[in-house]
Amino acid sequence: MADPTKVFLDEDDIPTHWYNIVADFPTPPPPPLHPGTKEPLVPDDLAALFPMGLIAQEASTERWIEIPEKVREIYRLWRPSPLHRARRLEAALGTTARIYYKYEGESPVGSHKTNSAVPQAYYNAQEGRMRLTTETGAGQWGSALAFATQIFGQTCEVWQVRNTYEGKPYRRILMETFGATVTPSPSDKTEVGRALRERFPDTTGSLGMAISEAIEEAAKDPGASYSLGSVLNHVTLHQSIIGLEAIKQLEKFGEQGPDLLFACAGGGSNLAGIAFPFLRENIEGRMNVEITACEPAAAPSLTQGEYRYDFGDSSGMTPLLKMYTLGNEFVPDPVHAGGLRYHGMAPLVSHAYHEGLMKAIAVKQRDAFAAGVEFARAEGIVPASESNHAIAGALAAARKATEDGTSPVILIGVSGSGQLDLPAYSEFLAGNMLDA
Questions:
Q1: Which DSSP state fits 66?
Q2: Minimal CA–CA distance to 296: which of 210, 357, 206?
Q3: Sheet with 6-7, edge to edge strand ranges
Q4: Helix, strand, or coil here: 270?
Q5: Whole-angstrom Cα distance, residue 426 to residue 198?
Q6: What 8-state DSSP symbol labels residue 360?
Q7: Is the dihedral of CA 248, 249, 251, 255 positive or negative?
Q8: CA 261, CA 268: separation in Å to the nearest integer?
Q9: How many angstroms separate the CA atoms of 39 and 19, rounded?
């Protein structure tokens, strides 16, 4: 076909293995530490919260980890996801750049989160853990886990950050449609939630707070597990399917690879998913892709945080992770990109950034939504609030390329659909949106 607009792969082209960046880092990433002993974690330290199948992936240094056939069967509902050439956006910008975007909004819940939710539910079911607890920011991860658990006959309990529980009711309804119970966090259902409400009576909540509540509930029940939608190594592993597909699809477009790659970054799962397979190409000398993490100015962990050991939750219940962090008690302003309102960054993303293997920028909320509207009017897809940050970074790069007279290949990770974010778009279009 002449000048294709999008490229699909066949279902038989769904990768058979996930890619583990740990095998290819020039220097090994620092290990997580036990919060009491400050010694590197051993598998038994995590057994109360995770099944051994996921613990093994968390600690693995193997380059390729096989995707179970049952997981690949469910992936076929939405994978492979399409890679689009943004021709109408290029025309609207008048840019000399060639812009592509990998769109994860065609999954059952409209985001990339199902890529990890399904294997997490699978490995828990394999070990008889039929009750899963979790947190969610914007509601995309909670929706994904609710969808995945109903496939395997499990129950799902979600603590949703209070700000988005109140501001995005349709996310809650979606989770409940898939059978989950949803509680605004911090809540009065857990000891840590009650303590947080007493300490911060007017808090809008945060992912760190919701994580603490979900962990407390899982730890009390031997038949329960805690599931996390970002940050941990096994989550970034599962998301690598995005970048593995994108490499094949760019080849079908006749491209050698992108020159510039932009993805939104909060906890790090979406960024890692699309970027790590390309980072491998960089490390092995086949490509030279400039990777940029686009984080919200309201939670700028990479661009303003410290690289040190910190807890992944607000109450100090998790292992200590070496990551870029704003401090585990940091509560971001209640911006609309709820999935990015996290105090820290995935340890593997943090390690890559610390080693100079990727860059980072902080994007203000109004700039992000301005880019999202521009993208929607050209491409016909309303992006998720989170994805708008990556689009803003990419549009700035495309405009600069035009000024410089260059024609880079730009790849954007569009992590999900914004159809349930329309109240936020309404606020922006009415001129009422604040940056913080």
A1: E
A2: 206
A3: 6-7, 83-85, 98-103, 409-414, 260-264, 290-296, 359-363
A4: helix
A5: 34
A6: E
A7: negative
A8: 15
A9: 27
214-239 per-residue burial string, b: 16 or more CB within 10 A, e: under 16: bbbbbeeeeebbbbbbbbbbbbbbbb
The DSSP symbol for 17 reads E
3-state secondary structure of 226: strand
The pLDDT confidence band at residue 2, using thresholds 50, 70 and 90, is low
How many CA atoms lie less than 13 Å away from 378 in the CB half-sphere? 22
Tell me the mean pLDDT in the region 400-407.
Answer: 97
Task: Measure the CA–CA gap between 14 and 242, rounded to whole angstroms.
Answer: 10
Q: Is the pLDDT assigned to residue 163 strictly greater than 90?
A: no
Q: How many CB atoms lie within 10 A of CB 250?
A: 22
Query: Which residues are paired to 134 by β-bridges?
Result: 158
For residue 33, give both structure tokens.
Answer: 């530490």
Helices (H) and strands (E) in the chain, counts: 18, 15
CB atoms within 10 A of CB 421: 29
Question: Tokens for 402?
Answer: 């035009």
Residue 303, token pair as written in the block: 């661009």
Residue 350 · residue 379 · CB < 8 Å: no
Query: Could you give the CA distance from residue 152 to residue 154 in angstroms, rounded to a whole number?
Result: 6
pLDDT digits (tens, 9 = 90+) for 306-363: 999 999 888 888 899 999 999 998 888 888 887 888 899 999 999 999 999 999 999 9
Which of 238, 285, 240, 287 lies closest to 263 in space, CA to CA? 240
Pairing of strands 155-161, 131-136: parallel
What does the DSSP assignment read for 25-48? -SSPPPPPB-TTT-SBP-HHHHTT
User: How buried is 1 (Cβ within 10 angstroms: 0-12 exposed, 13-18 middle, 19+ buried)?
Assistant: exposed
With 70 as the cut, is the pLDDT of residue 1 above it?
A: no
The C-alpha atoms of residue 19 and residue 65 are separated, in whole angstroms, by 7
DSSP letters spanning 369-393: HHHHHHHHHHHS--B-TTHHHHHHH
Reading the block at residue 85, the tokens are 């050439």
Cα distance between residue 420 and residue 370, in whole Å: 17
Assign 23 to helix, strand or coil: helix
